[in-house]
Amino acid sequence: MNMRSLLLRAAVLGAATLLAACGDDPGEAPAPPPVAEDTVPASATASTTAYVQFVGGLAADDRAPPRRLDGVTPPTSETSEPLTVE
Fold first, then answer.
1. What does the pLDDT read at residue 86?
2. How many Å is the Cα radius of gyration of the chain?
């Protein structure tokens, strides 16, 4: 084995070691999945106030696609006052 072959092997081994160290950080939390624009986010059903704020924040656009409401139960409260949607 000549010197050039030895240096080439050392360079390849060093590059492989550096690339192996560039893996994911296991302590890093994965990004949350994107929320589809045609669904109601779970945060909107957390309370009556959150639901009214979500509905009130929707743009009044007749051309917008409808929201999917499968599995969505609007929150209710027996103790809070009725809220108006503006």
1. 66
2. 27
Please tell me the distance from the alpha carbon of residue 29 to that of residue 16, in angstroms, as a whole number: 26
Strand partners, 39: 68
Residue 21 confidence (pLDDT): 65
Q: Could you tell me the two tokens for 24?
A: 């994911």
Q: Residues for the chain: how many in total?
A: 86
Exposure string over 37-66, b if 16+ CB within 10 A, otherwise e: eeebeeebbeebeebbebeeeeeeeeeeee
Mean pLDDT by 10 residues, the chain (86 residues): 79 77 67 74 86 82 78 84 75
Cα–Cα distance, 56 to 59 (Å, whole number): 8
